[in-house]
């Protein structure tokens, strides 16, 4: 990178490149240094012209670090800044492009990286960047996180060799002043309904919905009564259809599809709700019946 390029890129649009030397002398040489410049900083550089000071402070207030600077910082962090111009020439001009990079022989040739140690550095750096970007996504979206689930093994599945996604949520009656209860639910994306134990169903006095339907389990199909309920996950309430199941208490796909999800080997983050209309044929599905919980297993912990 040209020695004074970041300073010039900041000052030239202001017509104030005469201050390049002052910025350099006081150590304001990086793109990120220009964010939040203060009047005290300008005093330290002996910039006294009020109009010029005003222009610089105004520009610093809205200044954003350039993609090129982020690339340079990334390469410098991994001892690869020598190749900065090669990265730009090969259109690796932002971190997103580097994240998509395939660090292999063709890429090394394109970037003119011949030293084995530098090839290893770049490979590790790209992998690290991908992990960092994923963490950044979680931290950003955590502001809108609704609830946090986890991998566990419900009591009804103690004999299983794998853990399953679970979440604590509240099921309540849709009636005014109706009862509610918090339960641990298994997440079953293959089911249309919420399942709860019969004694909980009786306790909540959930109103019946229509005629009994054919409930399709893994090993048998039986008639069961649908009930209306309200599922509360975090601060969100969803109207749900509920049937009794004395084995597994589960949340079905109707609830899952209301949210966005981020799942790792350690946790399940329920993100802000997805606003979408009911899919066509939803009522027709009710007349054909529902499939009870047949959960998808997670990573084995045995």
UniProtKB/TrEMBL annotation:
One of its GO terms (biological process) is proteolysis. Residues 276-302 are annotated as: Disordered. Residues 2-59, 66-132 form the SAM domain. One of its GO terms (molecular function) is aspartic-type endopeptidase activity. Transmembrane segments: none annotated. Gene3D superfamilies: Transcription Factor, Ets-1. This is Hypp4249 protein.
């Amino acid at each position: 990178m040209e020695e004074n390029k970041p300073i010039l890129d900041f000052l030239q649009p202001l017509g104030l490149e005469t201050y390049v030397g002052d910025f350099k002398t006081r150590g304001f040489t990086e793109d990120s240094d220009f964010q939040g410049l203060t009047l005290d900083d300008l005093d330290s550089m002996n910039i006294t012209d009020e109009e010029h000071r005003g222009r610089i402070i105004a520009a610093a207030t809205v200044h954003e670090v350039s993609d090129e600077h982020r690339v340079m910082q990334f390469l410098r962090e991994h001892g690869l800044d020598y190749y900065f111009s090669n990265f730009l020439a090969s259109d690796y001009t932002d971190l997103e492009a580097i994240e998509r990079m395939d660090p292999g022989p063709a890429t090394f040739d394109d970037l003119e990286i011949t030293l084995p140690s530098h090839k290893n550095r770049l490979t590790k750096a790209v992998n690290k960047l991908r992990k960092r970007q994923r963490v950044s996504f979680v931290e950003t979206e955590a502001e809108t996180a609704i609830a946090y689930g986890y991998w566990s093994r419900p009591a009804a599945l103690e004999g299983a060799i794998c853990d399953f996604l679970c979440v604590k949520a509240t099921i309540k009656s849709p009636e005014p002043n109706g009862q509610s209860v918090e339960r641990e639910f298994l997440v079953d994306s293959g089911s249309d309904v919420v399942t709860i134990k019969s004694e909980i169903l009786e306790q909540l006095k959930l109103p019946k919905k229509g005629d009994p339907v054919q409930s399709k389990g893994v090993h048998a199909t039986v008639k069961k009564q649908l009930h209306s309920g309200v599922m509360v996950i975090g601060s969100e309430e969803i109207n749900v259809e509920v049937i009794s199941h004395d084995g597994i208490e589960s949340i079905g796909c109707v609830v899952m599809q209301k949210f966005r999800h981020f799942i790792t080997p350690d946790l399940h983050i329920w993100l802000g709700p997805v606003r979408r209309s009911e899919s066509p044929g939803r009522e027709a599905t009710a007349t054909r019946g529902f499939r009870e919980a047949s959960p998808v297993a997670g990573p084995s912990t045995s």
